[in-house]
Amino acid sequence: MNALGRFQDAFIDALYQGPADDLAALTAQPGFAVYRNTLFKGCVDALCDNHPAVERLVGRAWLEAAATRYARQSPPSDARLLFYGEDFADFLGNLDASRELPYLADVARLDRLWLEAFSAVQEPCLERADLAGMSATDLARCGLRPRAGVRWRWFAGQPIYSLWRYNREALPLPEEIPWHGEGALLVGGPAGVAWQPLERGACAFLDACRSGLDLDSASSLALRAQADLDFTALLGRLLGAAVFAPLTLPR
After folding, report:
1. 142/140 Cα distance (integer angstroms)
2. Is the pTM of this model over 0.70?
3. Start and end of every Putative DNA-binding domain (predicted)?
4. Is the N or the C terminus of the chain less surrounded, counting Cβ atoms within 10 Å?
C-alpha cells in the first residue's frame, strides 16, 4: 500500500476513535472533532431513519442514544448508509435498557427486512397464467424460487407483525393485541414494499422453496408445520403477491 493509502486508512480509523499515533497532531485540531461528530451524526440519523417502527415505539431520544452507542462500537463498512446497521437488532436485544421491551429487537428485524426488500434487485415474477396447461404432476416437480425482493419471517410467541405494522403505519395501537406468534411477508416492487401477515406453515413453505425443494416437498413441509393450512389458498395468495420468480422447470 502506498503512503496515500496508509494515510487514508489511518484517517478513517482516527475518525472512529481508533489508534492513530501518526496523526496525533491532526486529530488534536478542533476541526477534526467537527469531522468526527458529523460522521457519527450521519450514522445515528441513518439508524433512526432505517428503523421507523422502533423509533415510534421508544421515541427519538431513546433511539438516538442507543444508535450512538452502536455507532461507536460498530462503524459502517459501506458508504451507503441505507445498509448500515445489519446487526442493530441484535444490539438492541442485548441492551439493558430494552429488557422491558422484549419485542423491540424483533420489530427492528422487521424494519431491516423492509430495507432489504426495498433495496433488492428487481426481478420478473411468476404469473398465474404461466401455470396454465401444466399438469399437477409437472407442477409438483417444479421449484418455486422467491424473488430477490421478498422477505418473510416467523416470530414465535409474540405478535411482532402487529406491533410493527401499527407503528410502521403510524396507527394507534389497539387496547388489546392477542399475544401469540405471528409471521410477516414483505414484497419489494417498483411501487415500493407491500406487507401482509403470514402463518407458520406459509413461512415454512417459503423456507423450503428458498432451499431449492420442489413444490411437492415444500408443501409437505408446510403442512407438517401447520396441519390446518389451506395450501391451495396460500399458493394463490403468494402468486397474487408476486412472491415467486419465473418457474424453474425440472430437467
Report:
1. 6
2. yes
3. 7-92
4. C
- In eight-state DSSP terms, residue 143 is B
Cell of 92: 438492541
Close Cβ partners of 145 (under 8 Å, ≥ 6 residues apart): 209, 210, 212, 244, 245, 248
CA distance 64 to 121: 30
Q: Which residues pair with 183 in a beta bridge?
A: 154, 198
Q: Which of 238, 172, 169, 242 is nearest to 201 (CA)?
A: 238
pLDDT in tens, 193-250: 999 999 999 999 999 999 999 999 999 999 999 999 999 999 999 999 999 999 865 5
Residues paired with 39 in a beta bridge: none
Select 121-251's CATH number: 3.40.50, 3.30.70, 3.90.930, 3.60.60.
3.90.930
b/e per residue 2-30 (b: at least 16 CB within 10 A): eeeeeeeebeeebbbeeebeeeeeebeee
